[in-house]
Backbone:
């Protein structure tokens, strides 16, 4: 086992984790990044299609600035957001984020004359190099900043547990370098969890291979309160096939340098959504699209699994290809571009909720444990928001860790976690392979915890999950027990986290007795602002859990009704 | 031949012998990939041979039959095998949509991104070349990462950042922008024959050069910094064979838009690196022809005579002609060559 000493252990190598690391390094604090994938190359951050222009930057008018804020609060978060945080974040994005990125070398796409290319409309955006692919050069820049600063990276290392001091505060992490097959413990004065917005818990999910709800499960087992786990967000037009492309989106957002955007067509060939016409304010129109699709599904003209189409057959291909990567996927499948539309389907995307944090500091309810980015459940995702979390958490951690002694290795905890992982690395003839259990769980989530849910389905999902725990988990075994690059062993470790994360999601979904934006309950179809304009907090209690409701303050924007059918609400 | 194989479409193994995959790729690029996608129907059997390897000594080819799904990619076939047939198969992937660049493998002898490439009726899947294999299809990325880091592929500004947005046009970023499409998948690194020579050269390889090109071809970067990085690339060992361009899943024109512009930068900023191409250029510009004898004289002088047997072999095979080299210093093409290449300083 390797034991590493650091000031701060950061779990996650996406936008939030990298930016936290870079900022801590600048402040003279020694961070270590542990990443289940590769820093800047895995997770959701590379999927950023473009960057939203905040505030008055790049010729934005006062109205643009207000629209962007309204979009973030209403369309993106359905008011489940700290509006004061949103204001601070917007100001920071305007004044610090773009200049700092550009100064570091990020190429915001220009035209031949040197103008920054933007999308027109009520909310504007820019792209890093190419629209649809902005996250790749963005995160590649972060990766290189981390390398340049010589910040240690433990990559392809799955963190499996938090380590505690005798007083209960968090003092490090334990994990497995699954390529080398070696255990690792990082001792630190603070731990930042930044494992992202999306987990691969559903049959169709934008969560990448390595994502299995680890952040939620680890934080929960360490006693942290979680929030709004039911607020699952969905992509409505991701490629229906092939399976590995399930997270490849036919982007509905406004296109750079064009007045047009993708259109969606039902099984009968009727157009039912086109962002520019149907929802000019919802810049990332995912919730509005989902509601439009739900109506098609109710009318029998589409299924959440497919049978509807999206594409650019109303556009001049030169217009689409001038600044976007959108044509490439179509062409790779042998489709004609732009004449052919692609069959699309719904995919579980980001979770609005996560670890409950104080948005001023990103502290969780457990001392020494912080969360940033998607896992910090205070806003739905955009790469700029995740990055701002990285800044806030770095400032808070740098101030907090001045007090307190360097931790000692908690030998008993390390030994117990090592034994737990070893107990998962066993061969079992006639056993159940971890991949089969993963598939079972994802199918169950898709079927009973999908776009539209109800209490009967959720209760039955909890029963199914309990049955998996009782019947399948004890029989889980591997084909080969090698230590190095044993992805089956990693799958087995993932299964345990997935079961915990899914149960938390199911219980939180049962608790919120309303429909709100992308959260649709058949048995509670109304959006209920009188009772549920509130954070749905789940916290450990004895051997179980309890829920707590915390209303949001509404200093700048507020809904203008108490209850209304969620499908009739435009955002 | 099994009954299943006879159901293969026109691109099946009857028409395509093993090892001809490269020709297949060329034919299809002209067909915008439609043929490759039409080569199999849903439900057809895809025969997949995978090289299984571990450091304990196992090294064998295992064969699987996978039912074809709509628009199936190589990665879908690997996922099917791992879920249903070989649960312990080790292969790397994260995003499944050509962004993370971690799933590259060799399929029928040609580097492909598994998530991006369509399955073929009969596929042999092997790990990338030129990197140590850890297990099955998982290679050690560390040597590549270290090479990239050693080139310090970042911007150092010679002047203060003027503020957002800074003056910059796409025209100036034309080549760097192409390089920015790189996802670091290492397909080109595996395909490069010069990297395949191992330690015989100090060539950084195509992928590290593309990574460097992202900032070295950026007009905002300090030329002194770019020169320091270029000096570590061994870039003139590139033989311009275009293998890298051929396999690049991001369709980056690696030679024409990255390596050639970087060579031009090296030529200008680190003249000592470019001794050979500068000498050749001077000779062609002056004489209107390639004169190997003059090239040897310019690069090695009379020290070349130390390897007398090689000089004699070159003489016997007519590769060099000292009389011509010494006496025929111009040809009728000299004027035209000079006009095309311009007058070059002596190296």
Residues:
């Amino acid at each position: 086992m390797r034991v590493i000493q650091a000031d701060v252990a950061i779990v996650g190598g996406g936008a939030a984790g990298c930016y936290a690391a870079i900022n801590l390094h600048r402040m003279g604090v020694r961070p270590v990044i542990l990443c289940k994938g590769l820093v800047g190359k895995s997770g959701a951050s590379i999927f950023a299609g473009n960057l939203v222009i905040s505030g008055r930057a790049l010729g934005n008018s006062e109205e643009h600035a207000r629209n962007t804020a309204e979009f973030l609060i209403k369309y993106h978060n359905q008011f489940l957001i700290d509006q004061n945080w949103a204001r601070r974040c917007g100001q920071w994005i305007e004044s610090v984020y773009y200049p700092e990125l550009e100064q570091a070398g990020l190429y915001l796409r220009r035209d031949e004359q040197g103008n920054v290319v933007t999308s027109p409309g009520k909310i504007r955006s820019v792209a890093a190099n190419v629209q649809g692919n902005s996250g790749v050069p963005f995160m590649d820049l972060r990766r290189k900043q981390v390398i340049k600063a010589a910040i240690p990276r433990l990559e392809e290392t799955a963190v499996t547990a938090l380590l505690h001091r005798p007083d209960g505060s968090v003092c490090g992490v334990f994990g497995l370098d699954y390529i080398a097959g070696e255990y690792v413990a990082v001792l630190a004065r603070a731990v930042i969890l930044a494992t992202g917005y999306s987990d691969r818990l559903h049959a169709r999910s934008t969560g990448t291979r390595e994502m299995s709800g680890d952040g939620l499960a680890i934080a929960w087992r360490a006693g942290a309160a979680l929030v709004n786990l039911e607020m699952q967000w969905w992509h409505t037009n991701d490629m229906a096939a092939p399976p590995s492309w399930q997270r490849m989106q036919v982007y509905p957002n406004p296109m750079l340098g064009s007045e047009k955007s993708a259109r969606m067509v039902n099984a009968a060939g009727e157009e039912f959504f086109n962002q520019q016409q149907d929802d000019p304010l919802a810049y990332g129109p995912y919730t509005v699209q989902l509601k439009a699709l739900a109506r098609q599904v109710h009318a029998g003209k589409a299924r959440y699994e497919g049978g509807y189409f999206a594409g650019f057959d109303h556009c001049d291909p030169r217009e689409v290809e001038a600044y976007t990567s959108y044509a490439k996927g179509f062409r790779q499948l042998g489709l004609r571009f732009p004449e052919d539309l692609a069959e699309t389907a719904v995919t579980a995307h980001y979770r609005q909720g996560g670890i409950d944090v104080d948005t001023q500091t990103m502290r969780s309810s457990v001392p020494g444990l912080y969360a940033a980015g998607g896992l910090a459940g205070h806003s739905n995702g955009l790469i700029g928001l995740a990055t701002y979390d990285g800044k806030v958490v770095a400032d808070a951690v740098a101030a907090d860790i001045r007090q307190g002694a360097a931790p000692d290795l908690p030998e008993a905890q390390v030994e117990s976690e090592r034994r737990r992982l070893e107990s998962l690395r066993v061969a079992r003839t006639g056993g159940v392979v971890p991949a089969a259990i993963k598939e079972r769980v994802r199918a169950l989530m898709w079927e009973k915890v999908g776009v539209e849910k109800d209490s009967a389905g959720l209760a039955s999902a909890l029963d199914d999950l309990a049955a998996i725990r009782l019947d399948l988990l004890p029989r889980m075994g591997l084909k080969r027990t090698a230590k190095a690059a044993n992805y089956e062993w990693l799958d087995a470790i993932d299964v345990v986290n997935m079961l915990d994360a899914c149960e938390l999601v199911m219980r939180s979904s049962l608790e919120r007795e309303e429909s709100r934006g992308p959260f649709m309950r058949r048995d509670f179809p109304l959006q209920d602002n009188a009772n549920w304009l509130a954070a749905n907090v789940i916290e450990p209690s004895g051997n179980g859990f309890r829920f707590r409701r915390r209303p949001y303050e509404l200093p700048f924007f507020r809904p203008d009704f108490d209850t209304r059918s969620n499908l009739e609400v435009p955002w | 031949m099994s009954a299943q194989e006879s159901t293969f479409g026109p691109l099946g193994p009857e028409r395509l012998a093993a090892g001809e995959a490269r020709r297949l790729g060329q034919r299809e690029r002209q067909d915008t990939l439609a043929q490759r996608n039409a080569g199999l129907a849903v439900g057809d059997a895809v025969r997949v041979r995978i090289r299984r390897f571990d450091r304990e000594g196992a090294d064998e080819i295992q064969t699987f039959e996978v039912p074809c799904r709509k628009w199936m990619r190589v990665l879908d076939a690997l996922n099917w095998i791992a879920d249903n047939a070989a649960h312990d198969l080790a292969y790397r992937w994260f995003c499944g949509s050509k962004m993370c660049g971690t799933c590259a493998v060799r399929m029928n002898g040609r580097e492909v991104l598994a998530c991006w490439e369509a399955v073929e009726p009969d596929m042999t899947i092997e790990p990338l070349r030129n990197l140590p294999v850890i297990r099955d299809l998982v290679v050690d990325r560390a040597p590549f990462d270290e090479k990239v880091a050693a080139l310090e592929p970042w911007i150092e500004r010679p002047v203060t950042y003027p503020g957002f947005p800074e003056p910059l046009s796409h025209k100036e970023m034309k080549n760097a922008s192409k390089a920015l499409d790189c996802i670091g998948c290492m397909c080109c690194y595996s395909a490069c024959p010069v990297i395949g020579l191992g330690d015989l050269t100090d060539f950084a390889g195509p992928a590290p050069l593309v990574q460097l090109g992202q900032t070295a071809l950026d007009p905002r970067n300090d030329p002194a910094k770019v020169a320091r990085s270029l000096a570590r690339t061994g870039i003139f060992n590139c033989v311009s064979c275009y293998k890298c361009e051929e396999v690049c899943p991001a369709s980056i024109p690696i030679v024409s838009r990255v390596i050639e512009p970087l060579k031009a930068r090296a030529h200008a900023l680190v003249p000592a690196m470019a001794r050979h191409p500068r000498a050749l250029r001077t000779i062609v510009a002056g004489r209107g022809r390639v004169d190997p004898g003059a090239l040897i004289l310019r690069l090695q002088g009379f020290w070349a005579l130390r390897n007398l047997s090689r000089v004699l072999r070159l003489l016997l095979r007519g590769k060099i002609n000292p009389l011509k080299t010494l006496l025929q210093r111009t040809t009728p093409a000299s004027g035209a060559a000079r006009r095309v290449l311009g007058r070059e300083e002596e190296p």
